[in-house]
């Protein structure tokens, strides 16, 4: 299958084609999927960073949530003898073949946003955030708004992603501190608005009495809000993660109760910075962590335009 490519060069001589300058740093980026709002923000941040740099080129590939396709894309980067590779993994538990291939080729690699569930060897770094912290911040606020009692349902992201499991663990850890808070439902919404809406509709049709819905991201939270409708959403606290433009818009309308800012620009920029430094042979940290921040109706305006 012919894969769609998006290529960008920051500064090129007018008479030379893409990649013709031998001393350029060439970076290949394999994204888990282009059709994801938050990952799109990360990709745009990478593009913007490269546009600021001289002598750096980047090539993007869309794995379309296919582990095998992503491995093929990394193989292509290796065969092109690129200087560094960035991977946003499709499955954080299935990265061993990718790691093995880039190690064999001696090409430095950066994982971004989703953290591999293996120890990273030399020459490989991770740029992202501590997903459990997002769940803790989110649920602490929800528990406070509930007055320490109520029924909570959890919308999880893709179960193959450590971020979904870790955010959920953070939520459950906080909920366990409150004897009168019960988690009555937990199901994957696969990070999407539609799935979040469908799962919530099923809960409502099943007769669940829900006081709060805690979603692993804003898209699923918005889906839950759409399913609840104008009348029920006033009685249910809905929380998300990411503080996307759409998420902030729902906060502004009083429909989303809370979100947690995940810095897409920070992750995308740091991923490019790290890859460039590694390509130059410079020392980098094994993990570059970008902090999460709680966003409520009191401070959401401070986050407009940051993602």
Main features:
307 residues; alpha/beta; Rossmann fold; 2 domains; seven-stranded mixed beta sheet; four-stranded parallel beta sheet; 13 strands; 39% helix; disordered N terminus
| Computed Rg | 20 Å
* Number of domains as seen in the coordinates: 2
- SS content category: alpha/beta
Approximate strand percentage: 15-25%
- Across the major sheet, the strand order is 1-3-2-4-5-6-12
SSE pattern, N- to C-terminal: EEHEHEHEEHEHEHEHEHEHEE
CATH homologous superfamily caption of the largest domain: Response regulator
Under CATH, the topology of the largest domain can be stated as Rossmann fold
CATH class group of the largest domain: Alpha Beta
Q: Total number of helical segments? A: 9
Could you describe the 3D structure shown?
Pfam families: Peripla_BP_4. Keywords: Signal. InterPro entries: Peripla_BP_I (IPR028082), SBP_2_dom (IPR025997). By secondary structure, the chain is an alpha/beta fold. It has two domains: 5-129 and 264-289, 3-Layer(aba) Sandwich (Rossmann fold), CATH 3.40.50.2300; 131-261, Rossmann fold, CATH 3.40.50. The chain is 39% helix and 21% strand. It has helices at residues 37-52, 67-79, 96-105, 131-146, 162-175, 193-205, 218-232, 245-252, 264-279; strands at residues 5-9, 25-31, 56-62, 84-87, 109-112, 124-128, 149-156, 180-188, 212-215, 237-239, 259-261, 287-289, 293-295. Helix 3 (96-105) links the parallel strand 4 and strand 5. It is elongated. The two termini are 33 Å apart.
């Amino acid at each position: 299958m012919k894969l769609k490519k998006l290529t960008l060069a920051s500064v090129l001589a007018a008479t030379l084609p893409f990649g013709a300058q031998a001393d350029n740093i060439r970076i290949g980026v394999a994204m888990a999927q282009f059709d994801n709002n938050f990952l799109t923000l990360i990709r745009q941040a990478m593009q913007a960073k490269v546009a600021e740099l001289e002598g750096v080129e980047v090539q993007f590939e869309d794995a379309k949530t296919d582990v095998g396709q992503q491995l093929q894309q990394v193989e292509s980067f290796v065969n092109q003898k690129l200087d560094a590779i960035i991977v946003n993994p499709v499955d954080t538990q299935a990265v061993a073949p990718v790691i093995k291939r880039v190690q064999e080729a001696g090409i430095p690699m950066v994982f971004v946003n989703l953290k591999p569930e293996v120890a990273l060897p030399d020459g490989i770094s991770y740029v992202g955030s501590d997903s459990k912290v997002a769940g803790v911040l989110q649920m602490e606020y929800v528990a406070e708004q509930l007055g320490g009692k109520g029924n909570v349902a959890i919308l999880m992201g893709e179960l193959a992603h450590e971020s979904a499991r870790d955010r959920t663990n953070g939520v459950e850890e906080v909920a366990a501190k409150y004897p009168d808070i019960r988690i009555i439902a937990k199901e994957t919404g696969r990070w999407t608005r539609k799935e979040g809406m469908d799962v919530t509709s099923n809960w409502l049709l099943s007769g669940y009495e829900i006081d709060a819905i805690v979603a692993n991201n804003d898209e699923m939270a918005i889906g839950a809000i759409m399913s609840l409708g104008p009348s029920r959403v006033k009685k249910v606290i809905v929380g998300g993660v990411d503080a996307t433009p759409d998420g902030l818009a729902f906060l502004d309308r009083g429909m989303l109760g809370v979100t947690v800012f995940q810095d897409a620009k920070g992750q995308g920029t740091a991923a490019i910075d790290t890859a460039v430094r590694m390509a130059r042979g410079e020392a980098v940290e094994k993990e570059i962590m970008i902090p999460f921040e709680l966003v409520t109706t009191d401070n959401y305006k401070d986050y407009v335009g940051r993602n």
